[in-house]
Design brief:
Blueprint (H helix, E strand, L loop, with lengths): L1 H4 L8 H12 L3 H13 L2 H28 L6 H9 L1 H35 L6 H16 L3 H28 L19 H15 L16 H30 L11 H10 L2 H34 L6 H4 L10 H17 L3 H28 L14 H20 L1 H12 L1 H16 L1
Helix pairs in contact: 2-8, 2-10, 2-12, 3-4, 3-9, 4-9, 4-10, 4-15, 4-16, 5-6, 5-15, 6-7, 6-12, 6-14, 6-15, 7-12, 7-14, 8-10, 8-12, 10-11, 11-12, 12-14, 15-16, 15-17, 16-17
Keywords: Membrane, Transmembrane, Transmembrane helix
Protein name: Amino acid permease
Subcellular location: Membrane
């Protein structure tokens, strides 16, 4: 596979990789998650605490994955890490789940959010929601055909643009007077009777807001210095994302009476209006548009690399089709086309929360496998070249394992239908895998 990876042009530097990490994570969630988190926690103190805790867990997960990414800087990202450590079948199931649902569902859900915000901002007819969403999906697919450098540039530009309203809200909001009293200590669950249940619910809500950062590993085959820049982009990106989530959540709580935030999807706009006046609502809407645009581009850019690697490795039906690259820009256009078609179908379905939450759950199962994989590789291949090694080993991967195990077990108990459905859909990849292996065996006879 290393030979196949060399067909991809190594054009991406550190900042496009950092932009991809932050761009994939910072979408609409930075504005919308505050309503669900406060609903789960019941207090300002616990809300800020769970953001810090989830950031701490995610950073330790990032430190763990960064070691794998630096040691295995090849196209395919986490798919190749799983394959290297556990074999082809678990790797195929991961790639199947990503290619069929995870990436397309992320693209379609975010495109619907983008369309909704365009309609609200421009006072357009609600009937334009689907056409706008599909236009965005197709537009970003076509733009990414121009090459990884173009897609990476969009990520860099959109990251800078999306951070402007966030920075304005945070900086101005921190220094404006507020009549709301905020108590960060002691950490309590407010009116919620069960502290640990509130902590668990809040942690789950915030953890899902960090989803997407691992996808930058898919670009390793197109990075100039993946052994150096990949780990740096993951670690620095997650530190900055945690800082953004904590500070902007604090500003929202500072600007609005706490009881008005839980379940209020307009909390961000109302807080911005308190800070800037009526124009604040439009600023937030534009910020959401830019954030979501960058997030859709991130998924559009990274997703096809998974299908490409499956095709290049001859691990899926129609492998030659999926392994085909564009002549001049070396982009996996066919894998991207299939992803785009599935995303468009999902746009017409209309609701994607169940699908995306389900795949986040499945992804955490594979994430746990990777955290454990750090220990496996340290034991089995102590001489493996590791340009980046985890500081304070083995503490970071242990923290990541504890956090990941909590998410998986909590989801199984809290949302059993979602969890079982996710597992079943993932396992549906097995008959497809074995059918392809059977056909390969027949061809070789």
């Amino acid at each position: 596979m290393e030979n196949e990876a060399e067909k991809l042009k190594r054009e991406l530097g550190f900042f496009p990789a950092l932009s991809t990490v932050m761009g994939l994570v910072i979408g609409g969630g930075v504005f919308f998650k505050i309503s669900s988190v406060t609903a789960a926690t019941g207090s300002a103190s616990l809300t800020i605490f769970v953001w810090l805790l989830s950031g701490f867990i995610t950073i330790n997960a990032g430190l763990s994955i960064a070691e794998l990414a630096a040691a295995l800087p090849i196209a395919g990202g986490i798919y190749k890490y799983i394959e290297y450590i556990y074999g082809k079948i678990p790797a195929f199931l991961l790639a199947w789940a990503q290619s069929v649902i995870y990436y397309p569902a992320g693209i379609s859900a975010l495109s619907i959010i983008f369309a909704t915000q365009v309609i609200n901002l421009c006072n357009l007819s609600a009937s334009l929601q689907i056409p706008i969403a599909i236009t965005l999906v197709v537009f970003l697919y076509l733009v990414n055909l121009l090459g990884a450098r173009v897609g990476g540039s969009i990520q860099s530009i959109s990251l800078i643009a999306k951070l402007i309203p966030i920075v304005l809200i945070v900086v101005v909001g921190l220094f404006t007077h507020s009549s709301n009293n905020i108590s960060l200590f002691p950490i309590t669950s407010g009116s919620h009777p069960d502290f640990w249940s509130s902590l668990g619910g809040g942690l789950l809500a915030t953890m899902f807001a960090f989803d997407g950062w691992m996808n930058v590993g898919n670009l390793a085959g197109e990075m100039k210095k993946p052994e150096k820049d990949l780990s740096r982009s993951i670690i620095i990106g997650l530190f900055l994302i945690t800082l953004i989530y904590v500070t902007i959540s604090f500003v929202f709580i500072k600007e609005l009476p706490f009881h008005l935030i839980p379940g209020n999807q307009n909390a961000a706009s109302e807080a911005a209006i308190n800070i800037f006046g009526n124009i604040g609502g439009k600023i937030v809407t534009i910020g959401i548009l830019v954030s979501v645009f960058g997030a859709v581009n991130g998924y559009t850019m990274t997703g096809p690399r998974v299908g490409y690697v499956l095709g290049a490795d001859d691990q899926i039906i129609f492998s030659n089709f999926f392994a085909k690259l564009t002549k001049h820009t070396s982009i996996p256009a066919n894998a991207g086309l299939v992803q785009t078609i599935i995303a468009i179908i999902m746009v017409f379905m209309g609701s994607f929360d169940f699908l995306t939450d389900m795949l986040v759950f499945v992804m955490w199962i594979f994430s746990l496998m990777m955290f454990v994989g750090v220990f496996i590789l340290r034991k089995k291949e102590p001489e493996l070249k590791r340009p980046y090694k985890i500081n304070f080993y083995p503490i970071p991967p242990i923290i990541a394992i504890i956090g990941g195990t909590y998410i998986v077990i909590s989801t199984l108990f809290r949302q059993p239908v979602l969890a079982v459905t996710g597992i079943v859909i993932t396992l549906l990849g097995l008959p497809i895998y074995y059918l392809h292996q059977y056909n390969k065996k027949k061809r070789s006879l």
